[in-house]
From TrEMBL:
It comes from the Bacteria. This is DsbA family protein. Residues 6-145 form the Thioredoxin-like fold domain. It holds the Pfam family Thioredoxin_4. The lineage of its organism: Bacteria, Bacillati, Bacillota, Bacilli, Bacillales.
Length: 168
């Protein structure tokens, strides 16, 4: 597999020279840290049409990530304009909602963000898991960078910063 599906949450324009795909889990503290620089580094590149960001919520069978798997069921892929900012906010508020029980978390998502379980998300999760396996994304976050539609390759955050500076 050399291409990734469009399954995921899209930020930016389709024809940006760089596409950053991130396999992520909303309960992962490393994933939250990965997006600490969103407003200072990623957002300007997205707004300047240099970068398209694709977040792929990756369900992982790991105790510390199970709350993220639950949240992923509520993310509406059909209403990304509304949900994308919610995803970024959930990373910021991760410590707060991770302390909730599963039942409390469902109520929290419904009352704070008007999110409901999305029946199609199980199929989307399977697609994302297949892609993660194909690209050896064994941990979260795993970032893949594609230049001008080329084959995505794994990239570390420091390398990403260099790539963004080179394209600006």
């Amino acid at each position: 597999m050399t291409k990734l599906s469009e399954t995921g949450f899209q930020f930016g324009v389709q024809d940006a020279p760089l596409t950053l795909t991130v396999f992520t889990n909303l309960a992962c503290p490393h994933c939250a840290a990965f997006f600490n620089n969103y407003e200072t580094e990623l957002l300007p590149a997205i707004e300047n049409r240099q970068l398209r960001l694709v977040l792929k919520p990756f369900d992982k069978p790991k105790i510390g990530l199970l709350k993220g798997n639950l949240v992923h069921l509520f993310l509406d892929y059909e209403d990304q304009a509304r949900v994308n900012p919610i995803i970024l906010q959930l990373f910021k508020d991760q410590a707060e909602w991770k302390a909730l029980t599963d039942s409390e978390l469902q109520t929290y998502l419904n009352e704070n963000y008007n999110l409901e379980v999305q029946p199609g998300n199980t199929e989307r999760s399977l697609t994302i898991t297949q892609e993660a396996v194909a690209f050896d994304a064994t941990s979260v976050p795993t970032a893949l960078l594609s230049k001008h539609g080329g084959t995505p390759v794994k990239i570390e955050q420091a390398e990403l910063t260099q790539e963004l500076q080179a394209v600006s």
